[in-house]
Design a protein that fits this description.
- It is built from three helices and six strands.
- By secondary structure, it is an alpha/beta fold.
- It has one domain.
- β3 and β4 form a beta hairpin.
- The longest helix has 11 residues.
């Protein structure tokens, strides 16, 4: 059984973790930052870890690699940053 990273990871701001590295449900390597602003999809673990370490200035403890049974999801924009659709009405597209 695979679990979501939200159920596994401690609050990142409290633990000092800036980036989380793991696989998505399709087996691709994913890097997610704690704020949901930086990340990517990678072909191999080494590239994903290299990216996370570089982006965190090689700060010890800033990168967390999750166990294999944890599935990550890459969200390109946090929900609160998504534009809201204007309600349709007369004269609106």
């Amino acid at each position: 059984m695979r679990t979501s990273v939200q159920q596994f990871a401690p609050p990142a701001a409290l633990s000092g973790i800036r980036f989380t590295v793991g696989r998505d449900r399709h087996g691709r390597w994913i890097v997610c930052d704690r704020d949901g602003l930086v990340g990517g999809i990678f072909t191999d673990r080494q590239s994903a870890v290299h990216f996370a370490m570089f982006e965190s200035d090689h700060v010890p403890g800033a990168v967390c690699c999750v166990p294999d049974h944890i599935t990550l999801r890459l969200d390109f924009m946090p929900a609160q940053a998504l534009p809201q659709k204007a309600p349709k009405g007369p004269g609106r597209c």
